[in-house]
Design a protein that fits this description.
DNA-binding, Endonuclease Iii, domain 2
DNA sequence: GTCCAGGGCCTAC
DNA sequence: GTAGGCCATGGA
């Protein structure tokens, strides 16, 4: 079988230990992150859509506007116009696309899961993931965030920070795809939703503080001591 | 003024 | 298959 995409580096049986040490170090330095900061499963799903390429502060602005407009229930979202949803989610950016994604999700939920998040989230994990990925506007990262944070399923959200940090630490090749990095983490971590939840949240926090897209990083980073050769990899 | 954010889609090559 | 453009707002 030909493998065209760069594969994550397999460090053998010790890889799990390495990853757990990363996790423990971040947890020790930063403490529990308390993700996902939404009150309901619907809130988690809306947040997952709104946070696409958007800072969480802007997502919070949009969520507040949704709440003020009474749009944080399925019943109200069904009756809301496109313009109402667009106006509420505007601070999160890409507001036309995101409003349309929200409407598409609600329509699909009504058609395929009796309009019930209980019914939806009771479906088998792989089947549910495959179906969600078919919805326009839901890519792998958003779907996995929904599965992990709303459905408590063990899908690691291998977002840009996760890929960047693992790459800079030599655990994944530069340019590794979402699926490659997620598969790597799934092979080397116990399938524990609580672990995936906290691990991902910690990686994002470290990424925001120390691993920006272009900036040099590592100074003061909780993971600095783990860098290959003890030197900055970035 | 510039960069960036807890992505995803589409098109051209 | 993949690189590049586009979608958009708000904070640093």
């Amino acid at each position: 079988m030909k493998e065209s995409a760069p594969s994550a580096t397999d460090h053998g049986p010790g890889t799990t230990d390495v990853l757990i040490r990363y996790y423990q170090q971040m947890l020790l330095r930063l403490g529990p992150q308390g993700w996902w900061p939404a009150r309901t499963r619907l809130g988690v799903i809306l947040g997952a859509i709104l946070t696409q390429s958007t800072s969480w502060t802007n997502v919070e602005l949009a969520m507040r506007r949704l709440r003020r407009a009474g749009l944080l229930t399925l019943e109200r979202l069904r009756r809301a116009t496109r313009a109402e949803i667009e106006a509420a989610v505007r601070p999160a950016g890409f507001y036309r696309q995101k409003a349309e994604t929200i409407r598409a999700f609600i329509t699909w939920l009504d058609r395929c899961s009796l309009g019930s998040l209980n019914v939806l989230l009771a479906r088998p994990s792989q089947d549910l993931r495959r179906e969600l990925l078919r919805l326009r506007g839901l890519g792998p990262e958003t779907v996995d965030a929904i599965l992990l944070y709303a459905g408590r399923r063990p899908f690691f959200v291998a977002d840009a920070y996760t890929r960047r940090i693992l790459s800079r630490h030599g655990l994944a090749p530069k340019g590794a795809t979402y699926d490659t990095v997620q598969d790597f983490l799934h092979r080397h971590l116990p399938p524990d939703p609580e672990l995936f939840n906290e691990f991902h949240a910690l990686l994002v926090e470290v990424g925001k503080r120390h691993c920006k897209r272009q900036a040099a990083c590592c100074q003061g980073c909780p993971l600095e001591e783990f860098l290959p050769g003890g030197r900055p990899a970035c």
